[in-house]
Design brief:
It is a single chain. The chain has 210 residues and is mainly alpha-helical. 46% of the residues lie in helices and 4% in strands. It has 9 helices and 2 strands, in the order H-H-H-E-H-H-H-H-E-H-H. A two-stranded antiparallel sheet has the order 1-2. Helix 1 packs across helix 3 (53-66). The two termini are 20 Å apart.
Length: 210
């Protein structure tokens, strides 16, 4: 009926802060980076007992936030090779799940992996058959990545211009909770609350037809 879930809405609002921390420079961004990130990449920061409620909110929103965007990498030491979206439209852990299951160091940064030739990746057992083919496929994509200087950019995938909006993230929450993203319902030019009402009525049985 258009009534927002407050927990989800809160995570969306905290995600707006996270987007600014990665992509923007200013007084408040530098203050929060010193206070909460301590020169660590966002993906490596965890909530610690004694941290503020604000920090707890940022950390609670972080996982959902990072899955909705992709990094254009410049400072390679800040991006996780397997878990962040930097090569393609999803994390390499999802694109190559069988490799990810047997890799020894799942949180290594891109800079560490690309720092040697061959790539600095070790597995718990030898690569054979399908895993060997998958690894050659991954390496062929990685070696095509060009290294440039500059600051990392996090592009939001839920908007055409790549910029974060609270509405786009909240809509994603609703879609995942009620009906798949690919449903043609979401493309209709009608208010969001009407789309939600239609889906809920369809699932429960339309009371107007009883």
């Amino acid at each position: 009926m258009g009534i927002h879930n407050l927990d989800r809405q809160n995570r969306c609002l905290f995600s707006k802060w996270l987007f600014g921390l990665i992509n923007e420079d200013g007084v408040w961004q530098n203050l929060l980076r010193r206070k909460y990130l301590s020169n660590k990449p966002l993906s490596q920061v965890q909530y610690k007992p004694g941290d503020s409620h604000f920090c707890a909110g940022l950390m609670k929103a972080k996982a959902d936030f990072l899955t909705c965007g992709t990094f254009k990498v410049h400072e390679w030491e800040n991006i996780r090779f397997w878990k962040d979206v930097w090569l393609g439209d999803r994390p390499l852990s999802e694109a190559y799940p069988t490799l990810f299951r047997i890799v020894r160091h799942k949180d290594d940064m891109v800079a560490k992996v690309l720092g040697t030739v061959p790539l600095n990746v070790s597995f718990r057992r030898g690569l054979i058959n399908a895993n060997r083919i998958a690894w050659f496929n991954l390496v062929s994509k990685v070696v095509q990545v060009s290294i440039t200087n500059g600051q990392d950019v996090f592009r939001w995938q839920l908007t055409k211009n790549g910029l974060f909006t609270v509405q786009s993230m909240y809509t994603r929450f609703i879609r995942h909770g009620i009906v798949p993203d690919k449903s043609p319902l979401w493309k209709l030019k009608i208010p969001l609350k009407i789309k939600i009402f239609f889906v809920v009525s369809k699932k429960r049985g339309n009371p107007c037809q009883r």
